[in-house]
Write a structure and sequence with these properties.
Layout: H1 8-20, E1 25-28, H2 33-42, E2 47-49, H3 51-57, H4 68-79, E3 86-89, H5 97-109, E4 114-118, H6 137-150, E5 157-162, H7 165-168, H8 170-182, E6 187-190, H9 196-205, E7 211-213, H10 225-231, E8 235-238, H11 241-260, H12 273-279, H13 282-293
Parallel strand pairs: 1-8, 2-3, 3-4, 4-5, 5-6, 7-8
Helix pairs in contact: 2-4, 4-5, 5-6, 6-8
Amino acid sequence: MLHTRTTPAERRRHFREQLASGRLLRMPGALNPLSARLIQETGFEAAYLSGAVLAADLGLPDIGLTTSTEIAARAQQTTRVTDLPVLIDADTGFGEPMNAARTVQLMEDAGLAGLHLEDQVNPKRCGHLDGKTVVPRAEMARRVRAAVDARRDPHFLLMARTDARAVEGLDAAVDRAKAYVDAGADAVFPEALVDVREFEAFRRAVDVPLLANLTEFGKGPLLTADTLRDLGYNIALYPVTLQRLAMGAIEDGLRTLAAEGTQNSLLPRMQTRSRLYELLDYEEYAAFDSAVLGFTLPPGT
């Protein structure tokens, strides 16, 4: 009640242990803190905070308009309610290498298990849109190095994302990933790979944990968890799935409400009041409040 039962340090160590185990971690993107709690309850191993989702939640496109402090605030709200390790999308680090360094410390303070930084220019674009531009490899290596030097908890995961596949080709993306690992990245996120052969090639070439981005309506295939296990990937990321499901249901519900003038036909599709209260631990809050109200000091104190 009110908070998690684990500390950020415990969650970071657990995240590292999970990655070292060789098992595939399934990581849905939370659209708000309550959905993060539901991700945990459903049995997933970790949760994610997508920059695209956080921007869309503010009514903004994913083009680098959010700030480090905005996403840190949402991150802290999320890590407060889940015992899962949470990985966050930190875009380009929100500026120069010094900004990336500050971003790392903000995200550590927010209770996250790790973040990823990308090698796009700032402002960035969605990783599955055309027209992206990447910074020189050496510049991104400095960005990664600054993040490593700023990190205070050695278990906080620093992941490097490369968007170079769509700009410079697969071989260049692999070379960049290797350079970022040499600069200190703990893991790699190869963005917008287009088929299984490219996933295989990246796994053969890069000897650190790898993340597979399974975003819908993008450039890559929606590979199954079994396929990714066979390929040797460490994280299966579903970054925007929950937001797309929720917004689709909201749109349908609004149209039905407008057309019918009542929500009666929508009731079977809704989460019930009792289920919401169960998810929120409502009874535990009520019991705690009653205990506090009924508390009296022992006689003679």
